[in-house]
Amino acid sequence: MEKADIGLIGLGTMGANLALNIAEKGFRIAVYNRTTERTHEFAAEAGPLAANIIPCDSLQALVDAIKPPRPIILMVPAGAPVDEQIAALDPLVARDDIIIDAGNANFRDTRRRMAELAETGPRFIGMGVSGGEEGARHGPSIMVGGPEDSYRRIEPVLEAIAARYEGEACQAWLGPDGAGHFVKTIHNGIEYADMQMIAEIYGILRDGYGLEARDIASIFARWNEGRLNSYLIEITAEVLDAIDPETGKPIVDEILDRAGQKGTGRWSAIEAQSLGVPATAIEAAVAARSLSAMKSEREAAEKRYGIPTSSAGAPSEQALASLEAALFAGKIVAYAQGFAVMAAASREFGWNLPLGTIARIWRAGCIIRSQFLGAIADAFDGAPETENLLMTPTFSQYMEAAHPHLRRVVAQSAEAGLPVPSLSAALAHFDTFRRGRGTANLIQAQRDFFGAHGFERIDREGSHHGAWKKD
Ligand code: NDP
Fold first, then answer.
1. Amino acid 384: pLDDT
2. What is the mean pLDDT of residues 393-416?
3. Which residue from 43, 125, 279, 370 has the fewest beta carbons nearer than 10 Å?
4. What is the reported pLDDT for 471?
């Protein structure tokens, strides 16, 4: 039997869809799953694509079924399962075979695995795949990190299966070692902020203006026609419009306000903090998910403090335009923060991350896909020395026009007692960032007062101490 071009381990949601995508693009793929019945079930359900699929009942059979040098994709849960699979494969594969971890790994694990395998093991690639089930099946956005020559060997497969934006494949080699998984992590961090800000605007429309889900759906649908056009705004409109067949009510009103998280948002916030880069809009979104989980505490707090009742009435066209612009401004800050974290990591780890390319491969296939990312790619390409989106000519113009709306919406929400943690973090970041003389002179003085840490002066070089009257 003709051997496979590539192998895949883990036929769960992502793995099964990715394998079908690969088979559909004309590559032969050998597949293995821990639970053998799933492997056969998968092959049986593959229809005509089964001709390109070789189901394998053991890892040895999988390795034997692939043409050397063998690329093998792991699509299993991040963490211990990945280490277990690598340990099981290591004795079976050759030095120039390539293990590709395509799950949502922590990039620090990817760096460790790459270092561990460098001496005696096969080659290793850390590959972020975004787009969920649909993306995996019909075209994900793919972020690759690892040795460039290994990437070049799998590039034809990735080029064929990736999402396309105006004909361009949304996949790229982004740098060595953990670069791909780091970029995927920040992608998810930005996704958290994007979703949170949309939810905050939904909260203003629902609780501030008292609108029904279907009215809010039509507002988001309208915004999706303009500069906010994106997958997340599109699905928000669809979700808000959907009716629960059991109750006949909007399904969103029947869903518990408690959102889960798997870790990538938290990792983004942790890495931003480790690198000393403010990513407050993302951090606020992660914290908002944690607060959402504290349902019983929130209910008790509402009993204790109460919540203001809305008296705003339906929003005017002008108010709606302000909300749209506030969301746009908040989004600019969140993306600026995410890209700044990647730029800092790139310096720290010597990756040379291509910011414009990252924005370009996010234009399709992934959850944050949008036309906005096309503008970001153009902004970075047009100002290659600028790492801060807020300082690119295009986005500084956008921000100049939109930030007064963000200010108005955050201020009115604060007055009305409506929580907008991510939008207000974005505004606070912008206001702190654009102020040439801030207030850290006082912080320096306080630190010198209690800890003799010294301070710099505005009028001369060196470290100085104040003549504090401590007694
Ligand atoms: P699923 O839970 O659907 O599937 C997990 C797969 O891994 C199954 O095939 C399972 O096999 C196998 N598996 C689980 N534990 C082990 C183990 N210890 N050893 C060997 N095989 C194991 O997961 P997903 O497909 O959703 O996710 C896979 C990866 O992709 C994760 O890292 C996830 O974070 C990432 N990802 C998921 C996305 C999504 O939208 N779902 C989007 C992007 C990335 P068995 O049948 O035997 O249980």
1. 85
2. 97
3. 43
4. 62
pLDDT digits (tens, 9 = 90+) for 330-364: 999 999 999 999 999 999 999 999 999 999 999 99
**Overall number of domains in the chain:** 3
Specify the ligand 1 atom closest to the Cα of 105.
Answer: 32
SS (H, E, C) the chain: CCCECEEEECCCHHHHHHHHHHHHCCCCEEEECCCHHHHHHHHHHCHHHHHHEEEECCHHHHHHHECCCCEEEECCCCCHHHHHHHHHHCCCCCCCCEEEECCCCCHHHHHHHHHHHHHHCCEEEEEEEECHHHHHHHCCEEEEECCHHHHHHHHHHHHHHCCEECCEECEEEEECCCHHHHHHHHHHHHHHHHHHHHHHHHHHHHHHCCCCHHHHHHHHHHHCCCCCCEHHHHHHHHHHHCECCCCCCEHHHHCCCCCCCCCHHHHHHHHHHHHCCCCHHHHHHHHHHHHHHCHHHHHHHHHHHCCCCCCCCCCCHHHHHHHHHHHHHHHHHHHHHHHHHHHHHHHHHCCCCCHHHHHHHCCCCCCCCEHHHHHHHHHHHHCCCCCCHHHCHHHHHHHHHHHHHHHHHHHHHHHHCCCCHHHHHHHHHHHHHCCCCCCHHHHHHHHHHHHCCCECCCCCCCCECCCCCCC
Same domain for 370 and 388, yes or no, is yes
For ligand 1, atom 7, the nearest C-alpha belongs to 76
Residue 157, pLDDT score: 98
The residue from 41, 148, 166, 184 that is catalytic is: 184
Domain range spanning residue 71?
A: 6-177
Q: Are residues 130 and 170 in the same domain?
A: yes
Does the Cβ of 99 fall within 6 Å of ligand 1?
A: no
228 alpha carbon to ligand 1 midpoint, in Å? 32
State residue 311's pLDDT score: 72
Annotation says 184 is catalytic: yes
Q: Do 428 and 294 fall into the same domain?
A: yes
| 1 within domain boundaries | no
Active-site annotation holder among 3, 41, 159, 191: 191
pTM of the predicted model, to two decimals? 0.96
Tell whether 18 and 120 lie within a shared domain. yes
Q: Last residue of some domain: 161, 177, 193? A: 177
Q: Is the pLDDT assigned to residue 370 strictly greater than 90? A: yes
24 is catalytic: no
